[in-house]
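Recap for those who missed Tuesday's class. We walked through two folding examples back to back. For each one, the amino acid string is listed first and its predicted structure tokens come directly after. Nothing is annotated here on purpose, so try labeling regions yourself before you check the end of the notes.
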Amino acid sequence: MSSDGSNHDTYFSAFLLKWFDENARRLPWHSRDPYHIWLAEVMLQQTQVETVIPYYERFLKAYPTLADCANAPLADVLKLWEGLGYYRRARHLHETAQTVLREHGGVFPTSVAALLRLKGIGRYTAGAIASIAYDVRAAVLDGNVMRVLARYDDLDADIRQAHVQRQLWARAEALLPSERVGAHNQALMQLGQLVCTPRTPNCAACPLRTQCKAHARGTQAVRPVKAKRAPTPHYDVVAGVIRRQDGRLLIAQRRNEGLLGGLWEFAGGKVEAGETHAQALQRELAEELGVRVAVGALCVRVKHAFTHFKITLHAYHCTYLGALPPYDAPQALQVQAWQWVDEEELARYSFGKADRAIISALLEEKSRFC
């Protein structure tokens, strides 16, 4: 993984920085403010730049300072995050803002080691904050940077392997300049985003092409090497649009820990082997909320992909029949909270993407009969 002793690396950062000075994208988070940098880096995790920009701008308008974010209710932060996905990021962001305000006087620490002690900040994000905000000599390694380095060195090893990741981190650190470290890191990330793209890289526009081993050998199309992933599992899931006699709907709040923690949902769960959808839904609602329902017609079917699995969500209209003995009302048995709401009130709560599709189907049904 190391240089071969030639002038392979001599002008790496100089060429990169010259290109960046001439081609840097004007993005709203190009700032030396660590709060702005941190917010952008958290939002950009596994999310495209174009998707992030409006969320970033809305978030800063609502919470222009770290203290504003720290003092906001978590429910409000989650609502503002709604649609951006990976909601654990929002919970960690809120917690970290409170920690920085309480323990660091509202100012992010400057060292990578101190940043790594904050919730939701890993090695990449710590390096980005330290280098861009404070020009600390710290490397970054995200998917874009890994792709650039793998092509630059014509790396023929699987970049998902742990020992290769360690080599790539060491390589990124070795290539850091003595000055303008933050600009160097931003340039490297932008080069991967705009030029050294996953498919059909624009080598003619690359400032590193004269040094790039993959370009010289014609292997850029097969770099980086990634082993094929196992097939993504799929699950059938059911949810109940539970309505009581006065027309109000029963919604539940997921527990903070776990998938989509803290968000609201139409309760339900995974269909087990041998169960019909109605049986699965009745079992799940009894386990989660301690309620009995009559399962009616299908409301909507939604396909949705999470990071490591896919689901088909089948949402059914349900009539509330009452609580299971010994209860006289729904219970938070396997959920954090529950609430009866009018359809108009649903917009006040934060839901995941699949549940928002259910709400859209309900509103569409309502408009057809009005």
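Example two. Treat it independently of the first, because the proteins are unrelated.
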Amino acid sequence: MTTLRIHDDCNGALALDLRDLIDLLAPRSLQASWMVSPVVLHHPVLGRALDEFMVAGEHQLEAFAAKGTVVSGAALSKAAREASQVIWGQFVGTLPEQDDTWIMIRAVDSTFYEVTSSDEAVLGAIRSAYKDVRIAAGPVTSSPISPV
């Protein structure tokens, strides 16, 4: 699997949100089942993991994360459109009739989005749609964060 980090900005703010990625990857993103959860961060100073999930605006995404239930692509798309901004969150998509993860999307502190997938069509779409795309050594969950 390859992890890409999208850092595109517009006037000092991240130039994309979850709804943009769902739209970019449609129709497959709408056919997928999604698990919504916090991003797990390993804090080097505290010596423990922190779970982060934060959304500005409508809070259906937070309800999905709190319940830990699987939601349809249509439900995720609707909730993403109603949210003003996804600040922290993890979204794992699985395509019908597949057991393996198709894609993992992480919103990281409104600073960048991480997209992890082995699907070359996904990776190509990300590289084509965004200007500041970097290959990550690994997902943010394995990287330490700076002290609070």
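Answers for example two:
The chain has one domain: 2-43+50-136.
The radius of gyration is 14 Å.
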